[in-house]
């Protein structure tokens, strides 16, 4: 699927998080100059790039991500301990595929394998658009029992949560 915006520049950094995990952080700059960010805890950069493109698309419209997918179906999402079948949106699965998989079932859980704030916020942005019963499955003890759906533009992630993120130097175009 083509990017949801016209992309002028893509830049990817590897970043060691405070937890010790390594993340690939992508920044997409649209031809209009709007930046969007995405991440991947895997070794592939394209999920981070795709997430950044969707973030930029929503930010360029001044709308939350869920608005690009037909609107919000819930105001908060339950967070539970991982058990049973889950959908992992970070396992090289694009946003549209997560929505398609979830629409086939009446209930699903989105996996936040690291229980990282970025993962949780991304899962909430996805869950806001899904029909049926949806929850976020976190490894270990969940940090919270539920998360409100953010109405902020883009994915709703506060990117500078990790100290290393603010130190990244992005190439200019």
Structure description:
- The protein has 4 helices and 7 strands; from the N terminus they run βββαβαβαββα.
- It has 2 domains: 7-62 and 156-167, Double Stranded RNA Binding Domain (2-Layer Sandwich); 66-148, no CATH class.
- A hairpin with a 4-residue loop joins strand 2 and strand 3 (35-40).
- The radius of gyration is 15 Å and the shape is globular.
- It has helices at 46-60, 95-103, 117-127, 163-167, and strands spanning 7-16, 22-30, 35-40, 76-81, 107-112, 133-138, 146-148.
- 42% of the residues are buried.
- With 173 residues, it is α/β, with parallel strands linked by helices.
Task: List the main descriptive attributes of the protein structure presented here.
single chain, 173 residues, alpha/beta, Double Stranded RNA Binding Domain, four-stranded mixed beta sheet, three-stranded antiparallel beta sheet
Quickly describe the structure.
This protein is an alpha/beta fold and 173 residues long. Helices cover 23% and strands 27% of the residues. It folds into 2 domains: 7-62 and 156-167, Double Stranded RNA Binding Domain (2-Layer Sandwich); 66-148, no CATH class.
